[in-house]
Design a protein that fits this description.
alpha+beta, OB fold (Dihydrolipoamide Acetyltransferase, E2P), 243 residues, 5-stranded mixed barrel
């Protein structure tokens, strides 16, 4: 059977077209199958927006078509950078006063790298992520603040003071600066209710160990910051007045 030149050319073009079309399709399928597999607990994202503050860098990350904000210790970054990170700590309705912005959700990240992570890296966890340790009772005798209450009274009547602003004086037993945008302070005043003698508060103000101070803040109950860090009672966004 003879095939004229026109038919031969047509057949060759059809065959060639199928090959040309199938090659990129095969390549795309191969690329999809070769998609990077991340170890458990490791996240990867591309920077699409950057907000800088004095202590923190906020990065809007694109991950698989979804976007989310993460906060890291201040660093230089640019759009298009790709980062790997682990152990993100979720915070909801977090307000950055420096930015004048409230994040509906932001993830605070301690361990971040522009190189792939295995998930086994160890990093010093922020104080607000560490396993809570039982506080050690100190020898303190701090008079009640004028118009205020004692730590024991707060614990004894905690439901009464829920979401209320209270004033308490005490001695600083622990101070952790700039954790999730706040300073974290523990105080004791010498009072004790059923073994509850230590009070934690968050603040923008600074403090130092063994300092005697008066603090005014809003009482929050059963506050869960994630990562197993839970407070039965905590004062939030408190203001410090040195005694």
């Amino acid at each position: 059977m003879k095939i004229n030149s026109k038919k031969l050319i047509t057949i060759l073009l059809i065959v060639f077209g199928i090959v040309v079309i199938s090659v990129p399709f095969w390549n795309n399928s191969q690329k999809k199958s070769e998609k990077e597999k991340l170890p458990e607990g490791v996240f990867k994202g591309e920077v699409v927006e950057i907000l800088q503050t004095t202590k923190y860098t906020y990065l809007l990350m694109e991950e698989g078509g979804a976007e989310s904000w993460i906060a890291v210790t201040k660093r230089e970054a640019k759009e298009g950078d790709v980062y790997y990170y682990t152990n993100p700590l979720e915070m909801n309705n977090f307000e950055s006063k420096e930015l004048g912005k409230t994040f509906e959700t932001v993830f605070f990240v301690q361990n971040i790298s522009d190189q792939p992570l295995t998930g086994n890296e160890t990093a010093a966890a922020p104080a607000a992520e560490r396993k809570q340790e039982a506080p050690e009772k100190i020898d303190a005798s701090v008079p009640k603040a004028k118009g205020g209450i004692t730590i024991a009274e707060l614990y004894e009547n905690h439901t009464q003071y829920a979401n209320q602003v209270v004033t308490i004086s005490g001695k600083v037993t622990k101070y952790n600066p700039m954790i999730m945008g706040k300073n974290w302070v523990h105080i004791q005043d010498g009072s004790d209710f059923s073994g509850n003698f230590d009070l934690t508060f968050t603040t923008d103000d600074t403090a130092s160990l063994d300092q005697i101070l008066t603090v005014k803040g809003k009482v929050s109950l059963n506050k869960d910051f994630g990562a197993g860090y839970f407070f039965k009672i905590i004062l939030e966004d408190a203001e410090i007045q040195v005694k």
